[in-house]
Amino acid sequence: MNMQQLMQQAQRMQREITKKKDEIDAKIFEGKSEWVNVSFNGKKELKSFKILKDGVIDESDKEMLEDMILLAIKDAFTKIDREIEDKLGQYASMSGLM
């Protein structure tokens, strides 16, 4: 393989990586817990936050709600990380991609 072919192959690979990363960045990932639903894009930017429990949250439920929020966020981040691994894992050995 000559240098020009190698450069073309590297450019194709870079375009493919960029396309996949853009797809992930645009996708919405939903995280859920019993009381909370959150949505993030693939850049881990918060897009929506909803409290699912009807009625007023009293002081005794405050700590539980905080825990539920954390669980929902962790759930969404796990889904984002899984998507990145699924789509870009083959390029993980390349420096600076993940």
Description:
Helices cover 52% and strands 17% of the residues. The chain is α+β, with helices and mostly antiparallel strands and 98 residues long. The protein has a single domain (3-91), classed as Nucleoid-associated protein YbaB-like domain (Ybab, Chain: A). β2 and β3 form a beta hairpin. It has a 3-stranded antiparallel sheet. The longest helix has 27 residues, at 62-88. α1 (3-26) packs antiparallel against α2 (62-88). The model has no long low-confidence stretch (mean pLDDT 86).
What is the strand and helix layout of this fold?
Blueprint: H1 3-26, E1 28-32, E2 36-41, E3 46-51, H2 62-88
Antiparallel strand pairs: 1-2, 2-3
Helix pairs in contact: 1-2
Question: How would you concisely characterize the structure shown here?
Answer:
The protein is built from two helices and three strands, in the order αβββα. It has 98 residues and is α+β, with helices and mostly antiparallel strands.
Name the beta content range: 15-25%
The poorly predicted ranges are none
| DSSP helix fraction | 40-55%
Please state the second-level CATH architecture. Answer: 2-Layer Sandwich
